[in-house]
Amino acid sequence: MRRIRTASFVSLDGVMQAPGGPEEDPTGGFRFGGWVWPHFDEASGGLMGEAMGEDYDLLLGRRTYEIFAAYWPQMNGGIADAFNAINKYVAAGPDTPLTWAHSHRLEGDLAGAVRALKATDGRDLLIQGSSEVIHTLLAHELIDQLTLLTFPVILGAGKRLFDAGAHPGAWTLTRTRQSGSGVVAHTYERTDLPPPTGSFGEVEPSAAELQRRDRWAREG
């Protein structure tokens, strides 16, 4: 059984679009491509390396795959050698040529294909970028670990890490690290438990509180 992990760059408001450069992904008129660069240093690079780990295959959406496939095969050393050598499992239709070495197309329903892949023996499946893949897999409770590298910027609009389809659940914080440039890395493990809830309210609600509840119920 494989584990599925993410190592995601996110802004304070949860945007993950185009962290690497202005031309990476201007979809939707996104204006802040390259927002990671001003905060990226040796320490934050180390955080990313720790988040990715050393033994994994990549699980990618179409757009992220196309960005990577146009860049990494021309690079050498370090992460480039790792990316070029490992398997890449890609959620993309037949119109997307899989020209990058060791690339494999996921056929049919994404959640079903990933569930079947996860059930095989092999290395962890690491998601980079690929917001739509993350959305689908969170909705089907298929992601085991989230590592978020949060950068000290607010971007407003853009593709986000979480959407309304994410399955509610409790996650356990297992590690926190920070760089001097303000990047904070949090690692969370899925628990399969529902979100815990509680209340700071009085045991016996006041008449005003009961009226408020009734009014809000009528308002929908």
Description:
- The chain is α/β, with parallel strands linked by helices and 220 residues long.
- Helices cover 26% and strands 21% of the residues.
- The protein has six helices and eight strands.
- The chain has an eight-stranded mixed sheet.
- β7 (171-178) and β8 (184-190) form a beta hairpin.
- The longest helix has 13 residues, at 207-219.
- The model has no long low-confidence stretch (mean pLDDT 95).
Keywords:
220 residues; alpha/beta; 6 helices; globular
What is the terminal separation in angstroms?
Answer: 44 Å
On the 0-100 scale, what is the average pLDDT? 95
Q: How many DSSP-defined strands?
A: 8
As residue ranges, the low-confidence spans are: none
Task: Tell me the fraction of residues in β-strands, as a range.
Answer: 15-25%
Helix content: 25-40%
| Protein structure class | alpha/beta
Rg, nearest Å: 20 Å
Sheet with the most strands: spatial strand order: 4-3-2-5-1-6-8-7
**Shape verdict:** globular
Number of helices: 6
Order of helices and strands: EHEHHEEHEHEEEH
Q: How would a textbook summarize the main sheet?
A: 8 strands, mixed
